[in-house]
Amino acid sequence: MNAITAEKSVLAFIGCVTFLIVALLFLILGIMFLKGLPSLHGGFLFEESKDFGRAGGVFYQLAGTLILMAGAVLWSLPVALGSVLFQTEYLRAEKFKTFLTQLTYILNATPTILFGLVGYLFFGVYMDTGVSWVTGSLILAVMILPTLQVSIREAVETLPEKYREAGMALGLSRATQIWRIILPQSFYGLVTGVLLGLARAAGETAAIMFTATTFSGIQFPQSFSDPVPTLQTHILVLAQEAANPESIAQAWGAGLVLLGLVFLLTLAAWSFRTRLVMESEL
Amino acid sequence: MKADFRRGGAWFAEPLVWVFAGMNFIFLGCAVGLGIFLVVESVPVLRAEGLGFWSGENWWERFGALPMICGSLIVTGMAVFLVLPVALSGALFTSEFLPPSFRRRVKGIMELLAGVPGIIYGLLGVSFLTTGIKHAFNLLDGNTLFTAGVLLAIMILPMVLTLSEDALHSVPSEFREAAESLGLTKLQTALRVVLPQSLPGIVGAVLLGTGRAMGETVAVLLVVGSLDRVPGFNLFVSGQTIPSKLGREAAEALGSGLHWSALMGLGLTLFLLVAVLTFSGNLFFRRSRQ
Questions:
Q1: Does A113 lie at the interface with B, CB-CB under 8 angstroms?
Q2: Does residue A167 share a domain with residue A71?
Q3: How far is B132 from A9, CA to CA, in rounded Å?
Q4: Helices (H), chain A
Q5: Chain A window 143-172: which residues touch B at a Cβ cutoff of 8 Å?
Q6: Residues A143 and A260 in one domain
């Protein structure tokens, strides 16, 4: 009897802990909505920020975040796709393959601020792109490379062997197999990777805060060497003015927009991934 | 028609291999180049300071990185210490006691939670955690190493939970059936059979979470207080971690000079710490899969 009550109370305890952990997401969402919604007036997304971020909207900040995200994926996708196809379809040396996979893991775990430091030196100084949106998107491209690679590799490697065998039986060359069989069949993995990569780029602050962004005074970039304002760095600057209620209110609004953007991309990635799972079960 | 198609493929094949190889080379260059740059750029400061770079306590006159290294180790250690019991309870309950449909929902929520940007945690930390801790412990300033540790614990919780849950769940059900047929209760099975079996995977999960915590920049930067001194044994003082130091000073040191080299030296230190954690974490994962 005693042992049973002990077991039940332990179970109840870890059940409660689990419930609280799950509740954390709703707590964060709740706080963001509670604090962010009041500052989301009608034109918040379409007005420029005024008075050093204390009033107005976040139009150019949102645009800057989107520019950096899109740029990152544009640079990163061909490299990720090419390197994964090279590793899965052409490369035979097992040891080299394991080494490359390990490299992907290390790159994935590297603290993001290091991409900012080294990326600024390589792109900004040696390739002379300066503090600009080009530097920022290149740095983010390197940062999301492992995310894209892992998704694409998973899709390519879980492709049923019979598809390849059928292609070989038809006498297709390897390039035709890739173009006609592997790419179309693993397309969902590619889309999932791109969406997760976009989400990761959207949430990143450390790598771009001193390499690609500016706080105010800039609208759309007019040239390749212009910095952009972004939602992330906008929040960072406003959050440090904690004594000023107007700044903090704007920071919550921008935070809600950013969180919405990231969650939307993640959920979209899931919907593609479930389709991927269903396809492979056929 | 078919023959044409095939010849088209063969014509296409040669350049394509080189394109793919080139892309792979770019990837290799990015990863290896990152390490090489960190080493090469920190040579000047290591030449100027020698081993004193890691043991010096003074950043302004001599570039000693000890305050930042201590801060990073303390904050990360605290986050792991706080997250371990919570994440393990959650993982055990999710894997062993929740029905599959709920399990999938919990995993989904964890994945969503893991995607919340660091800057959002920073904003929440600045607004609630610092004032909360200031009042709870009756401090003059809520921006302390303790605050950063708590915030980091919350940030790495979903990752540690979901990875250790994977490890628990991948223990074959034969083990559970055998244990229960011997008369063990479900909790005894979970604690004495499943948990020891999945230990390598759990250690791997914790190590990867530790690496993540060590590299987090903006959330820590906003709540840690940014004060360069060796904190001693008091957690309730302002401090500095390696990433927060980099975030604070990179903008003013951009480009060249010994200051920049010193920051790159800090970056190299951080990179080595995280690489060791990640590498051993992955080793444990591979052992758990065998």
A1: yes
A2: yes
A3: 30
A4: 2-36, 59-85, 94-109, 112-119, 133-157, 161-169, 174-177, 183-185, 187-202, 231-239, 245-281
A5: 145, 149, 171-172
A6: yes
Residue A36 vs residues A237, A248, A255, B111, B129: alpha-carbon distances, Å: 17, 10, 7, 23, 18
Asked if A203 and B117 come within 8 Å (Cβ–Cβ), the reply is yes
Whichever domain contains A153, its CATH number is 1.10.3720.10
Query: Mutating which of A69, A114, A121, A195 best tests the B interface, going by the most B Cβ atoms within 10 A?
Result: A114
Cα–Cα distance, B96 to B102 (Å, whole number): 12
Mind listing the pLDDT tens digit for each residue in B212-248? 999 999 999 999 988 888 877 788 888 899 999 999 8
- Taken in order of first residue, the domains within chain B and their CATH numbers are 52-289 (1.10.3720.10)
Q: What tokens does B90 get?
A: 């959650």
What ipTM does the predicted assembly reach? 0.90
By CA distance, what is B36's nearest residue in A? A118
Contact predicate B176/B189, CB 8 Å: yes
Q: Which helix (H) or strand (E) holds A55?
A: strand A55-56
Helix axes A59-85, A187-202, angle to 10 degrees: 140
Q: Is B133 buried (19+), middle (13-18) or exposed (0-12) by CB count in 10 A?
A: buried
The CA distance from B37 to B29, in Å, is: 11
- How far away is chain B from the Cα of A222, in angstroms, using its nearest Cα? 23
pTM for this entry: 0.90
Provide φ and ψ at A41, rounded to 5°: -75, 170
Mean pLDDT (chain B, rounded): 88
Asked if the model's pLDDT at residue B11 lies above 60, the reply is no
Q: Which residue shows structure tokens 């034969």?
A: B174
Quote the tokens at residue A84. Answer: 């994964």
Domain carrying residue A56: 40-281
Q: Considering just the CA atoms, what is the radius of gyration of chain A in Å?
A: 23
What is d(CA B277, CA B211) in angstroms, rounded to the nearest whole number?
6
Alpha-helical regions (H) of chain B: 2-49, 52-55, 66-96, 100-114, 118-124, 130-136, 145-169, 173-181, 186-189, 195-197, 199-215, 218-223, 242-253, 258-289
| CA–CA dist A22, B109 (Å, integer) | 7
- Give the per-residue pLDDT at A30: 94
pLDDT at B8 over 50: no
The answer on A26 and A120 residing in a single domain is no
Closest CA to B45 of B60, B62, B32: B62
- Domains of chain A: total: 2
Phi, psi of A281 (to 5 degrees): -85, -15
Scan for tokens 């900040």, then name that residue. Answer: A61
Those residues with Cβ within 8 angstroms of residue B131's Cβ, 6 or more apart along the chain or in another chain: B142
Cα–Cα distance for residue pair B183/B163, rounded to 1 Å: 29
The verdict on A22 and A115 lying in the same domain is no
